Every structure is written in structure tokens, then in C-alpha cells.
Amino acid sequence: MGLQEILWTLESLPGSWQNVLDILLVASVFFLILLLVRGTRAATLLRGIAIVIVLVWGLSALLNLQAFSWLLSRTLTALVVAVPVIFQDELRRWLDRVGRFMPLVAAGTLPQDVTDEMIAEIVDAVRLLARRRHGALIVLERDTGLSDYVESGVKLNAEVTSALLQTTFFPNTALHDGAVIIRGGRLAAAACTMPISAARRLPDRQMGLRHRAALGISEVSDSVAVIVSEETGRISIVVSGRFIRGIDADRLAIILGEYIHARRISRLENWLRQLRKKAA
User: Fold this and answer.
1) pTM summary value
2) 35 by DSSP, 3-state: which?
3) For residue range 247-277, what is the model confidence (pLDDT) as tens digits?
4) Neighbour count for residue 13 (Cβ, 10 Å)
């Protein structure tokens, strides 16, 4: 579409509500894409691609360069194929986020008394692990399934107890290296391998591989990750790529309660709230 066609389309907008709807839908798509890529490396790459395309297209349209326009059209076709390859990690993350809200009905939850008991056992174990400076990574599954990561570890399917968690993360034991995954109120597996985040900067330079693993699993799922630092004994939580650091056991219980057995809202409503927060 050339410059004249674009101008003609803009002039005809008031006479057709379909054209207005068409423009609004296109604008909405671009708005959602910008919200999804904001704060990621994809934003910088997309900005560079957009600047190059606008400059080259504007030059060819203003100077009426036929051969250059032909070359540009062929390059854009190749770019459509190259974009999924360049942004494969980001595309997988975006599709995973979209999939969390389909279907729109929220998944069932455990009875509140069962959840409270599980949280109490986790908090007690984390309190003692932090006091002894035994490193730990506990991942609690929510809507996004973690079956692939469960398969990477040693399956336990055991009751969640403070004693079992402390034993699992005791130094030099067979299962202490890796993450514990809790699913449906049960300790599904231990010594699980988590995806390592590629983030260049962490909130604290003292954060090591365990914190990067917690950040990585929070980037590809909606799980809640609890970390105990082996160096400092500091307790942290990571949710949706965000750290809540330096908390004590009492605050840990409150935060876990909010994330795990708080009243569930529909996924669509939750998504709209997240979009409003990002747009604010």
C-alpha cells in the first residue's frame, strides 16, 4: 500500500463505520504487542526494525524508487519468516500467557483448611532452613502446568511436611540440588531442573543460580517460587518475574495465602487488571 492509498483510506474513514472498526482493531493489536514486549529485549529489537522499515519505506515512497520498492517488498516477506525465529523465546512466553486465560473459567482450588496446613508446613520449613542457611527453592504450581519440570526430577508424590522439606534441602543429600515442585497440595518431585533466566541484571549481585532459576520459572509460568539464600539465609518470593525480598516467616505465610487460596477471579478479569496496571 502506497502513500496515496493510505491518505485515501484516512479520508474515507468518516463515511464507513467498518473502516473505523478496522483501524481500532489494528490499533488494539499494536497496543497489546507493545504491552507484552515492554521491558524485554524484544522491545529494543522491534523498535530498531520499525525505525528501519519506516525510514526505508518513506524514502522509497517519496522518491518513487521502483526497484528499491520491489526489493523492500521481498525483504518484508523474508522478515515475516525471520521474526518467529528471532523472537522464539518471547513468542513462547506470550502464547503461554494467552493460554492461561483460556478457558476463562478459573481452575478448582484445594479446600482452605488443606491449603492453610500446607502453607504452615512450608513456612515452618523455610524458617528453619533460613536460620541454618540451607539453600532451598520451592515452586508451587498454579494454573500453568509444570509436568515437564516434574519429569526432570525425582518423583515423590508425598505429603508436604516441614520435616520432609528440611531433609530434602539438607546439604550434600541426593535431592538438595534443584527445586521442589508442589502440585495440588502434594510434594510432586524434588531435584527438579528449572529454566535459568537470561536477565542481565538481578536486584542483588549476591543472587546466584538458585535465584535465576526461580526467576526463570516465574517467566514461563504463573507459579510461585520461594527461595532461601544459602549465603545470607534471606527469604525471597518470585512471582511473574518480580522479586519480593527480605521477608520473614510471618510475612511469607501472608503472601503465600494471598497467592494460593485467595478468592479466584475469572482469568479474563485478571488479564484485564494486568493490562490496566501495565498501561497505568
Assistant:
1) 0.63
2) helix
3) 998 899 999 988 886 544 444 455 555 656 5
4) 13
